[in-house]
Amino acid sequence: MRSSQSAVSPVQGPIIQYQARADFIDLSWGHPPGSALPVQAWTEAVQAALTRFGWQALTYGHAAGPGPLIDWLAHRLGRIDGCSPHPHELFITAGASHALDLLCSVLTRPGDVVIVDSPTYHLALRIIADHAVEIAGASADADGIDPDATADLIGRLRKAGRRVPMLYLVPTFANPTGSSLPVDRRAALIEVGHGTGTMIVEDDTYREVCYEPPAPQSLWSLADRAGVVRVGSFSKTVAPGLRLGFLTGEQSLVRTLGQRGFVDSGGGVNHTTALSMAAFGESGAYDRHLRHVLAGYRLRRDVLTAALRDWLPVARFRAPSGGWFVWLQLPSWAPTGRLLVHAEQHGVSFLPGSRCYPYDHGEQQLRLAFTLFEPAQLQEAVRRLARAIDSASFTAGDVE
Ligand SMILES: Cc1ncc(COP(=O)(O)O)c(C=O)c1O
C-alpha cells in the first residue's frame, strides 16, 4: 500500500518571473533566453570560490563587497571604460535596481524632485516613486537628454523652493531607446551636475552589451569621479538570478552606504555570489561567456531590424549598437495603446512607449526586446505586428 505521504503530490510554487503564453511572442520582456545563461560555467565558478575561500565564502561578507570582486571589477572597468575606480569608490549591490533604490534612500527625502531622462527605463520610475518624491521628465530629443533645458528645469525648481538632489538616466545603449548620449552632451550634462549640485545617477547596465565597440566613455569616468554615481549590473552579461551589481561613486558616498543598518546587520550584499563572480571573471569564463551571448544578441538584433524594414515600413527606428531593445516610432494613426489590444489578438506583444515617460506621452512609440526569443520567432512577431496594424478593425478605429 502507498503511504499517505507519497500519495500527496508535492506542491511547487512558481520559480521564475517570466510567464510564457502558448503560441504568443511577448516582446515586452527584457529577459535573456535560457540558452544564454551559463549553468555549467557558473557551477564551476561557485565550486572554485568555495575551494579557494572555504568557509570565508559562506560567512558575512565585507561591507562594500569582497576584495577579490572589488579588485577584479576595478581592473575590468579600467579596461573597458575611461578609468579604473579606486577600490574605495566601489560598492557591490544586489543588482542595478538595488543600487538605484539605495541611492534614492541616501540622496533623496520625501517631497524632493528627481529628474529623469524622457523616455527612460520604466521600472526605474517605479523604484524612484517608492521614495515619495516627485518625478520630473527632462526635455530630450532623439539623441537623448538636453543638458541646457535640464539646467533650466533644475533652476526653475530650485527657485520654486524645491530640492533637486538627483538626476537619473541610462546614457549608454539605453533602455528603452537603445541609443547613446553623444559625447558633447555627456560633457555638458556633467557641467550641469557640477554647477547645480544635483547628483547624476548613471545607469550603465548595458555597457558590456556592446555590438560595435567601443562603448562610449561613462559619465562617471568623464566627470573625473565627482558628481556622478554609475550603477552597473551582471544581470545582462551573466544572469539576472544572481542579483548582483555594483556602483562607482565618491568615497564618501561608498562609506555612507557601507554604514547603512542593513549592511551592519547582514554584511556585504550577496557575498557568496560576489566571490563566485570574482572566480568567474578571473578564470576567463566571463569573457568567453560574453563573447557567446553577444553573438546571439547581435544576431537577434540584426534579424529583428531586418524584419522591421521588410514588413513594417511604417515604423521608424534606429538600429541599436548595444543593449536589448529597439524603439519604434509609429505614425499618428497607429497609437500604441490601441495597437496593443489588436497585437495581443494576433499573438504578439510589446511595451507601450507611454510606460517610459513620467508624464502623458509616448502614444506613438513602443519598445521591442529582442533577447528572449529565437530569430525565427522575432520574424514571426514582426509579421504578426504588421498584420495587427493592417487589420481592418484596427485601421477602422474599432476600439475594444
Ligand atoms: C536600464 C536598466 N537598469 C536596471 C535594470 C535592472 O537591473 P538589475 O537586474 O541589475 O536589477 C534593467 C533591467 O532591465 C535595465 O534595463
Task: Give me some keywords for this one.
disordered N terminus, 400 residues, binds pyridoxal-5'-phosphate, alpha/beta, 7-stranded mixed beta sheet
Task: Reconstruct the topology from this structure.
Layout lengths: L3 H4 L17 E2 L12 H15 L13 H14 L9 E4 L1 H13 L5 E4 L5 H8 L4 E4 L2 E2 L2 E2 L1 H13 L6 E4 L13 H14 L2 E5 L15 H4 L5 E6 L11 E4 L2 H8 L2 H6 L4 H12 L2 H27 L13 E5 L6 H10 L2 E2 L1 E2 L12 E5 L5 H16 L1 H4 L5
Parallel strand pairs: 1-12, 3-4, 3-7, 7-8, 8-9
Antiparallel strand pairs: 2-10, 5-6, 9-10, 11-14, 13-14
Helix pairs in contact: 2-11, 3-11, 6-7, 12-14, 13-14
The chain binds pyridoxal-5'-phosphate (PLP).
Percentage of helical residues?
Answer: 40-55%
- Poorly predicted runs of 5 or more residues: 1-6
Mind summarizing the main beta sheet?
A: 7 strands, mixed
How are strands sequenced across the largest beta sheet? 2-10-9-8-7-3-4
Shape: globular
The share of residues in extended strands comes to 5-15%
Kindly name the structural category. Answer: alpha/beta
Rg of Cα set: 22 Å
